[in-house]
């Protein structure tokens, strides 16, 4: 069988895997899809590959696998198998699962460590258990694994072709964690009703499904604002291509936070807020204008 005049079998297989990952982000996330489109080619491919693996894990724990008929233990087994496959592929450079293969090729090129993958899957595994009345430590641990380490994975890809000092890298890593945390906390608020009604979950410390008061909502939004402010300082230090894409993603989530702030706590339980297309277009133009060539990178 021929594989094309200029591609090796592995190159063709990897390209096919990357196309599969690209399809995942296109189908599941308009916001992240728009932001990823602003990235340079290889960086864009890497980010899409990370997103796709994260999305597949989410589908195991967030109801899709259960809808397909998988019981509790079967879902746990599926998640464990996905983690095992991802870690193995990071070391071997191959997987029969196209999404895992694309992620592994990205991880190997960008230096994504096993520890980041393991932390992510620990948080995903937490979703297979009842999620409510979490302690502050449990909440922070979940956010770290489900969001902050994903930010660190993306940063590895952003810096793949860029040499930075250890001091700058430390600042960028902190910013990546804070931005990932902000995104996750905004999603927790936006999905408050669906998480409670469909999955019986409530992620914020000390809360139970269906209960969130105005004072607690204000505290959560203040925490999100602090994360976004810290992240914005780090975004300004990124290389230009990743900077404008990350600024766009941050802008979209800042708009979501603004809309959540205008809703009452009671409304959050009954309606999932979104950003209209014309507003997304405005934020896109703003992000592109702000990413001037004279900034870092």
Automatic annotation (TrEMBL):
Transmembrane segments: none annotated. PROSITE patterns: SQUALEN_PHYTOEN_SYN_2 (PS01045). Keywords: Transferase. One of its GO terms (molecular function) is geranylgeranyl diphosphate synthase activity. The keyword Transferase applies. It comes from the Bacteria. The keyword Transferase applies. PANTHER family: BIFUNCTIONAL LYCOPENE CYCLASE/PHYTOENE SYNTHASE. This is Phytoene/squalene synthetase. It comes from Nesterenkonia xinjiangensis. The lineage of its organism: Bacteria, Bacillati, Actinomycetota, Actinomycetes, Micrococcales.
């Amino acid at each position: 069988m021929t594989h094309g005049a200029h591609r090796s079998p592995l190159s063709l297989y990897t390209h096919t895997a990357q196309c599969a990952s690209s399809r995942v982000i296109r189908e599941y996330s308009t916001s992240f899809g728009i932001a990823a489109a602003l990235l340079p080619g290889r960086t864009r491919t890497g980010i899409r590959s990370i997103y796709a693996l994260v999305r597949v894990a989410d589908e195991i724990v967030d109801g899709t696998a259960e809808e397909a008929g998988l019981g509790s233990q079967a879902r746990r087994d599926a998640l464990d198998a996905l983690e095992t496959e991802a870690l193995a592929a990071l070391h071997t450079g191959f997987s029969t699962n196209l999404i895992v293969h694309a992620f592994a090729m990205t991880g190997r090129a960008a230096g994504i460590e096993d520890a980041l993958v393991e932390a992510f899957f620990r948080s995903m595994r937490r979703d297979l258990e009842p999620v409510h009345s979490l302690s502050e430590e449990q909440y922070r641990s979940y956010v770290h694994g489900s969001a902050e380490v994903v930010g660190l994975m993306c940063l590895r890809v952003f810096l793949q072709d860029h040499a930075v000092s250890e001091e700058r890298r430390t600042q960028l890593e902190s910013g990546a964690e804070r931005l990932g945390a902000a995104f996750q906390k905004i999603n927790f608020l936006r999905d408050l009703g669906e998480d409670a009604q469909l999955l019986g979950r409530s992620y914020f410390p000390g809360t139970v499904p269906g209960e969130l008061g105005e004072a607690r909502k204000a505290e959560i939004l203040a925490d999100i604002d602090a994360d976004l402010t810290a992240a914005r300082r780090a975004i300004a230090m990124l290389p230009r291509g990743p900077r404008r894409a990350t600024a766009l993603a941050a802008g979209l989530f800042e708009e979501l936070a603004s809309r959540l702030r205008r809703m009452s706590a009671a409304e959050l339980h009954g309606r999932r807020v979104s950003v209209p297309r014309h507003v997304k277009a405005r934020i896109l133009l703003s992000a592109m204008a702000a990413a001037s060539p004279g900034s870092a990178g």
